[in-house]
What does this fold into?
Amino acid sequence: MSRNQLNIRVSDELEELIDKKRIELASTLKIIPTRSDVVRYALEQYLGKSLLDTDADRRSTVSKKKLTN
It folds into this structure.
């Protein structure tokens, strides 16, 4: 399975919102998830598709099971 990278640009406001979500999630996860982790989680929720089985990028610092709890 290939591992593709997606480069996106976000506004300062969206970047701040992502960082706030990282801190919010850190209180329950006990670690601060990466910005990429937060974006992956948001895409999973928006698309209504679990990425646990299909996500080729296994470098995530937060397990997706933790994010979905």
Q: What stands out?
A: The CA atoms of residues 16 and 49 lie 26 Å apart. The radius of gyration is 12 Å.
